[in-house]
Amino acid sequence: MKFTGMILAGVLSLFSTVAVSETFTFTAIPDEDESQLRTRFDKVAVYLSEQLGVEVKYVPVKSYSAAVTAFRNNQVQLAWFGGLSGVQARRLVPGSEAIAQGFEDQFFKSYIIAHHSTKLAATDSFPLLNDYTFTFGSKDSTSGRLMPQYFIESNVGQSVDKIFKRIGFSGDHSRTISQVEAGVYQVGAVNYKVWDTAVEKGEVDTSKVSVIWQSPTYPDYQWTVHSGVDTVYGAGFKDKLTKTLIDMKDKDLLDSFPRESFVPASNSDYEPIERVAKAIGMLD
């Protein structure tokens, strides 16, 4: 009986080792230039691996919808989502949770930017946008499509396809800035963080493109974790992961997002995003 007990203990120990050695994978919506994302999230993977004691791997994706699909299929257990993509993912994976957000994500905002040839100037009241060409970012972007479309239609009283002469979707915020600066589109909607960072780095010619309006605030980006991680990685793993994200203090790592810090988040924080998405027909 003693020998049998030793075998059983050894088998249980083996299974425990296998579970702990399981690679923990995460992804992020491709809202900026791919090389910048790789640099940022490879560093995040190293940080998480050191703190959590498991191998952590960043898995890049080509689109917002691909990030949601990877999460739905459990190809990744954690994702840095925008407000809308997070809502979409959590609707598809019961039990998944928003666990942390950037301090700034509690009150995020969008900018409307315009090419200098439009003669549109910065204004506190909503600008007259009729008959211009306009580009959003990704079709599933919160700050580059969902909220700008909502604010535009609410202020103008018409659908965007009736307001603008032509509508495009650049794919990400960096390309939106480039396209408006080059005059490919006259006006566009962009994530304020990406714009402010690009201007600070001298990557935008502000003699050609400038901010003409900023939106009211809304909740946006967040870390969302898959249901069942405690089963795979051990009891208390989700809480440890949450604490690890909130305790991220490395200035270079935070600046790469860029965020001041990370704070707790919950699914209920993003109910306003879900309501807006339903209101403009982007969610059932």
UniProtKB/TrEMBL annotation:
Statement: the UniProt record of this protein carries the keyword Signal: yes
This protein's UniProt keywords: Signal
Gene3D superfamilies, sorted: Periplasmic binding protein-like II (3.40.190.10)
Residues annotated as signal peptide: 1-21
Superkingdom of the organism of origin: Bacteria
Family matches, as InterPro entries: ABC_peri_PhnD-like, PhnD
Pfam families the record matches: Phosphonate-bd (PF12974)
NCBIfam families per record: 3A0109s03R, ABC_peri_selen
Family membership: Belongs to the phosphate/phosphite/phosphonate binding protein family.
Protein's UniProt name: Selenate ABC transporter substrate-binding protein
Organism: Shewanella litoralis
Gene: phnD
